[in-house]
Write a structure and sequence with these properties.
mainly alpha, Cytochrome Bc1 Complex, Chain D, domain 2, 3 domains, two-stranded antiparallel ribbon, 14 helices
Length: about 325
């Protein structure tokens, strides 16, 4: 990884609006560093047409979210986000990093069936899932300029992707599960040694420019009132642990993880053991409970396992029970 690429990745991890335009040059450098099977469209080649300006606006929304739609922006009608996180705090490098929950190659995967909803969802629905869960805010109308810009940027990142093609590197990765429950107590030691230097001993991150509250975080909080809520994908242990393993500490490359598999599971469990906002109405998620992820941190469940085992594992026994129920002639799954 070149020093120029590292600099770009650090900047893109969450920036203020004033710096967003300066980072456009970094995207071109990033495109040159990716393997040939991961072609990132170059935003520096965009024109000044209305369509291309919309794409650039979408990228700004990803990297400078609180400055544009955060809870403290001047226009109350555009306060869609309920916290001061940026989309790029989870979708690393403006959504272009492998196993950093990339936005690359997603446009052609929608509409798709959502087990959480129990029906088909659009790309706009998926964006709003992030708005109401990861950003702990409210839904954005499909016609809102901000929604159109975000969708335009996601479409742009799929420019070189054939319809029906699923690119490698999507999601947060997939490492082996533990045969035991993840251990938050052991994870606290790992957090102190590997995470606290950036996220703080209290895990509440580093604000970009105190006391101003609309420029987000230099380093995001991992828990607390300004973090993602318990309905977010990152609130699932498998997502958080894989994300940590393949991306953290800062500067980690997915091909050369710094934390062991065991350490990643335990430190993610420590992170998720802390309080965070609670999303109302989660009991309505997953109408067919047999399709609910085994590590969903909230009930109800189709099985008889405890909430703690769903949160921390081991997940093998839960998965076996669910598989057995699915094979039953009359599974008691839908509610």
């Amino acid at each position: 990884m070149t020093s120029r690429f590292v600099t770009c990745a650090r900047l893109m991890s969450g920036i203020g609006l004033a710096a967003a335009w300066a980072l456009l040059a970094c995207t071109g450098a990033f495109a040159q560093q990716q393997p040939s099977d991961w072609i990132v469209p170059d935003v520096t080649t965009l024109s000044d047409s209305p369509a291309d300006r919309l794409i650039r606006k979408g990228r700004e929304l990803v990297v400078a979210t609180p400055s544009l739609i955060g809870p403290n922006v001047g226009d109350a009608s555009t306060r869609y986000a309920g916290n001061n996180l940026s989309c790029s705090n989870c979708h690393l490098s403006a959504g272009t990093r492998k196993f950093g929950l990339p936005l690359f190659g997603l446009a052609h995967l929608f509409p798709q069936y959502s087990a959480r909803k129990g029906g088909e969802i659009t790309i706009e629905d998926r964006v709003n899932s992030c708005m109401t869960r990861s950003l702990n805010g409210r839904e954005m109308p499909d016609s809102a300029p901000e929604m159109r810009a975000l969708v335009a940027y996601i479409d742009f990142l799929s420019t070189n992707v054939a319809k029906g093609e699923t690119l490698p590197g999507l999601g947060a990765g997939s490492m082996p599960e533990l045969a035991r429950a993840a251990d938050p107590a052991r994870g606290s030691t790992i957090f102190r040694d590997a995470c606290a230097a950036c996220h703080g001993n209290d895990g509440l991150g580093v604000r970009r420019s105190l006391p101003t509250t609309d420029l987000g975080y230099l380093v995001p909080p991992l828990w607390g009132a300004d973090s993602f809520n318990n309905g977010a994908g990152m609130a699932r242990l498998s997502v958080a642990a894989n994300f940590v393993h393949f991306n953290m500490p800062h500067g980690t490359d997915y091909a050369s993880p710094r934390l062991s598999v065991e350490d990643a599971w335990d430190v993610a469990a420590f992170m998720l053991s802390h309080k965070r906002p609670v999303k109302p109405g989660l009991e309505r998620d997953f109408p067919d409970l047999l399709l609910k992820p085994v590590d969903a941190p909230y009930g109800p469940y189709a099985d008889g396992f405890s909430v703690d085992q769903h949160r921390y594992g081991p997940f093998g026994p839960i998965r076996q029970a669910i598989d057995k129920m699915k094979q039953s002639p009359s599974p008691a799954a839908p509610r």
